[in-house]
Each structure stands twice: as C-alpha cells, then as structure tokens.
Design the sequence.
C-alpha cells in the first residue's frame, strides 16, 4: 500500500496531504481521553502488521489491518494510521515523508468509511450478518485502498497504468486474509472485552 518517494506528482501529493489533514483533524476532534490507549494499541497493531511487505512496482503489498482500525476507532483511525505510517517512514523508509499524506488518505479513508457504515452491523445478534459485516470491513478496506493507490498512480501519469493494475491484483489475496483476520479478532474481542465494540 505504501507509495514510494519520488513517484507521485506534486498535485497528487498536495491533494493527499490536504485530505489527510482534514481526516486527522476530524479524528483528533473526536478523540476522547479514554480512547487514547485503544488508539495507541491499534496504531501499534497497524505498524507491526505492515512491516513485512513485498515490493509491487512503485508500491508494496502487505497486511494492513486498516479495516480493523476503522471498525474499532471510526474517525480516530486517521491519526492512528498517520502515526504508524510516520514511524515506518522514519525508521524503515517504507513510503516516505513526502508521500505521507497520500499514503495516509489511501489507507485511512476506506477504513473510516467502511468502519462507520458497515460497522453498524457488527453488534447485530445474527452471527451470519455480523461476521459478513466484519469480513466486508476488513476485505473492503483493502480493495478500496488498492483502488485509491491505483488512482493516485494513474493521476500522476498514464505510464503508471500497468503498475496500477498490478497493485490491485497483488492485493486480492490480502483482501481475503484481512477479511478473515478481522472476523477472528472482532469475534474474539466480543467474548473477552465487548465494551471495545461500542460504536466508534
């Protein structure tokens, strides 16, 4: 999901930075003091999950768990993902500081949209509906993020069209894995700490 330094055009970088600034601002405004430990924990989970990555053209493929973040955090997933991406850029040179805005938006926005919309079904009493919603949140976040990464590359130049297609194809197996992980984690949390699943 990370787009490397020196790939995106100035216009795409500025748009990504602006949109991420708005998202992070909304997330911080909605951040309650009691939520800080949960946000910090999920930011760490995101950071660790994204460490093992496979280069795919100008981007990379790896576990993200952004859907889980969006499901449990809502808009506060924006600052959580920004912190994780910043540490990855500074410590391991994944992505980069100039692409931080675009990478944050591409990963956090789908997570928030699906977490806020589909997440309403996570507390449904019907297990089939509940687990389907959890799977859609995990898998859909990766699909939506892959499309945004592809769009960012394509908006930079038509020469990136093959790489854009490759990014989407490389994330199909990751979508399925993330969907299953999200179902497993949310169902486990439901048994041990159900209060965490209160609407984000």
Sequence:
């Amino acid at each position: 999901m990370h787009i490397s330094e020196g790939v995106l055009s100035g216009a795409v970088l500025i748009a990504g930075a602006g949109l991420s600034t708005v998202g992070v601002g909304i997330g911080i405004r909605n951040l309650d003091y009691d939520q800080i430990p949960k946000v910090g924990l999920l930011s760490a989970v995101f950071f660790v999950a994204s460490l093992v990555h496979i280069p795919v053209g100008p981007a990379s493929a790896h576990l993200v768990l952004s859907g889980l973040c969006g499901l449990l955090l809502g808009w506060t997933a924006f600052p959580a993902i920004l912190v994780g991406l910043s540490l990855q850029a500074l410590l391991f040179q994944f992505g980069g500081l100039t692409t931080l805005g675009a990478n944050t938006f591409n990963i956090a926005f789908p997570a928030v949209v699906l977490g806020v919309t589909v997440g309403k079904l996570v507390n449904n009493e019907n297990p089939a509906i509940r687990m389907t919603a959890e799977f859609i949140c995990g898998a859909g976040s990766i699909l939506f993020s892959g499309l945004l990464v592809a769009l960012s590359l394509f908006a930079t130049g038509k020469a990136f069209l093959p790489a854009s297609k490759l990014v989407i194809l490389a994330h199909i197996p990751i979508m399925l894995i993330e969907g299953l992980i999200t179902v497993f984690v949310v169902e486990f949390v439901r048994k041990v700490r159900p209060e965490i699943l209160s609407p984000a």
Remarks:
- The helical segments are 10-29, 36-49, 66-73, 77-92, 100-117, 127-156, 161-170, 172-192.
